[in-house]
Amino acid sequence: MKTIRTASMIALSLALATGGVAATTFAPRAAMAAEKAKVLTPAVFKPVSEGQAALKAGKVKDAIAKLEEADKIAKKTPYETYIVNILLSAAYGQTQDYNNAIRTLEAAQNSGEMLAADSVNALKQITASYYSMKNYPKTIDYAQRYLQAAPGDLDIMNLVSQSYYIQNNFKSASESTRSTIKAAQTASKPVKEEWLQLLMSSEFKQDNNAGVMAALEQLVVTHPKDQYWKDLIRLNEAAMKGATNKNNLDIYGIKFFLGLVATAEEYSEMTQVALQEGLPGVAKRVMEKGVGAGVLGQGAQKERESRLLTKANADAAADQSSLAKGEAEAKNQKSGDALVKYGEAYASYGQYDKAIEVIQAGIAKGLQNGDEGKLRLGIVYIQSGKRAQGLDAFKGITAGSVPAHLAKLWSLASASKKA
């Protein structure tokens, strides 16, 4: 997982370290220039100025020696304590002596001379430093202090989440990551893929499949990748209790829509299931796509695949010629279930407007399973490019049902493809 990296240990300290010391005064901030110059006593000024000169010359060890000499002087003023420690922090940081870098930066904070804005920035630097040192409890402690003063810093919020995760506190890692995601959305900033990966992993570590699924649902829309889709579809299949062979075709339909049907075996199996379910138009389209992609008709199974294509074409031709008659007969039936099936058939040949009309007529007559009608209507709307109407058609499907899982996948697929 990706983490914050800084060019230097304490950016604030380094900025001061490359400033200038004039005579017996030190004014590191423009805001202080307007104030009465604060004075370093000669005893402190000499080692401080020599230490700063050594820092500018790249002689860090010499700088530390001089600044430590200044630090040992008794009865320094708060301002002198601030200057000595802020420079020491910079020097220690350059030698990767992080413990002393943090210690002296905190001493500078506690001097009472650090400007409020610099103090907040110092908390941020200390947080990042503790994370670099793998001191995760301290990372969380200082991050929380910093975020109280500067709420909404997404990078620091993410460090908190990572720190919880590394300590195997997966519940807190999930909660913290959700807060980061919510803060980003509130600020109209993009949700980073690594945050969602962290959330997904945290939920997985808690054996929370619903949480994993929720994270994947965000990933397939904001950062669509084939593997995320495969994982999400697999989890939904596992949750679809009482799924039928037709629902197997539904899953293949989502994969086909997303371009995830890739192997000869997948093309052939989807074709066979479509034929079994009385949708030769789907079978024909799938076989033609596989042949056009150079996946079918090339390997050891090319003769079998050729026979399958021939059957799909023949069945589709016979089906198309009988659609009008079958639709008329379906209109005379008591329920609208047959009309919904004929609507699906029209859609399989790309006649989406006709399909929508017939399915709506079927729904109006009444169905054995109302969820099924809403699902089929929504799918056809999405296939025709009318996503908003499709999402509206899905409304009211029973939560937790097989149609609900399929409707959610189609909703996400249409959003992912649009993105």
Distance between the ends = 24 Å
Uncertain segments? 1-36
Q: What fraction, in percent, of the residue positions are helical?
A: over 70%
User: What is the tally of helical segments?
Assistant: 22
Q: Kindly state the number of beta strands.
A: 0
| Largest sheet composition | none
Number of domains: 2
Principal-axes shape call: elongated
Strand content: under 5%
* Structural class by helix and strand composition: mainly alpha
Order of helices and strands: HHHHHHHHHHHHHHHHHHHHHH
Look at the structure and give the mean pLDDT. 91
Rg: 33 Å
Describe the fold and architecture.
There is one protein chain. With 419 residues, the chain is mainly alpha-helical. It has two domains: 1-132, Serine Threonine Protein Phosphatase 5, Tetratricopeptide repeat (Alpha Horseshoe), CATH 1.25.40; 240-418, no CATH class. It is built from 22 helices and no strands. Residues 1-36 have low confidence and may be disordered. The radius of gyration is 33 Å and the shape is elongated. α18 runs antiparallel to α19.
